[in-house]
Amino acid sequence: MDLELTGRRAVVTGGSRGIGLATAKALAAEGADVALVARGADALATAVEAVRAHAGPDRTVVGLPADTGDDASVAALAAEAVRALGGVDILVNAAATPSPGSFPEDALEEEFNVKVRGYLRTARAFAPAMAERGWGRIINVSGLAARQTGSVVGSVRNVAVAALSKNLADELGPQGVNVVVVHPGLTRTEKTPQTLATMAANRGVSVEDVERAAAAGISIGRLVTAEEVADVITFLASPKSVALNGDPVVAGGGALGPIFY
Predict the structure, then answer these.
(1) pLDDT of amino acid 202
(2) What is the per-residue pLDDT across 88-129, written as a single tens digit (0 to 9) for each?
(3) DSSP for the chain?
(4) Across-strand partners of 64?
(5) What is the C-alpha R_g of the chain?
(6) N or C, fewer C-beta in 10 Å, the chain?
(7) 155 within 8 A of 142, measured Cβ to Cβ
(8) Within 13 Å of residue 108, how many CA atoms lie on the same side as its CB?
């Protein structure tokens, strides 16, 4: 299937690692011009080189250091992204603290600022031009903590991203801009060994026990990878995804048991 992404211009926040980096690679491989956004300049430079290896010779791949938790930084990011790419058609919001299994409750304000207000900041920065052109895609990476207890901060921030996405979808959909929230489950990334170790320590069990328990609740019997989540996001970023707007897309390998309807 031709996803019709050649020449589309994408901004990926949280682009230096994990799902964000995997998504930037997938978009570049499909012919999109890509701007990766992250706070750490060194990690961002390394990520840009990795993404360029997936891009065609006539495609643009740039790194734009920015803090999505800061209004002025996002405003500057939007201006620089337009200069670098000539405009922005696709926004993938993936800038957030990877879940360690549970957050301390005093982290709520910071997590809300970065993952919820940060997603809203970038959406408000790029959506008006998308709407003016009559086409755009905004994909917000949230997580299955939105459907699970166990971490107040993790659940609250992810539920809020889902609510944010639905509001934006209803607002922007008539103008040709689709907004979708993607809920990955526990996903295999470069941070997975550290995450599993933290979860194991918190529970007083082995890392192998944690991974087995996680896989036992997934219908495909294993953790999905960042690249597999990125494939879903890349489809959502394409014109082929027009039938999906506002409702959540779950990319966690399937949760055994519950029926969501």
Answers:
(1) 87
(2) 999 999 999 887 767 889 999 999 999 999 999 999 999 999
(3) -----TT-EEEEETTTSHHHHHHHHHHHHTT-EEEEEES-HHHHHHHHHHHHTTS-TT--EEEEE--TTSHHHHHHHHHHHHHHHSS-SEEEE--SPPP-S---GGGHHHHIIIIIIHHHHHHHHHHHHHHHHT-EEEEEE--GGGG--S-HHHHHHHHHHHHHHHHHHHHHGGGTEEEEEEEE-SEESTTHHHHHHHHHHHHTS-HHHHHHHHHHTBTTSSPEEHHHHHHHHHHHTSGGGTT--SS-EEESS-BSS----
(4) 37
(5) 17
(6) C
(7) no
(8) 9
Closest alpha carbon to 29 in 59, 69, 70, 62: 59
Which tokens hold the place of 160? 């809020």
Residue 256, both tokens? 């055994």
Q: Which amino acid is at 51?
A: V
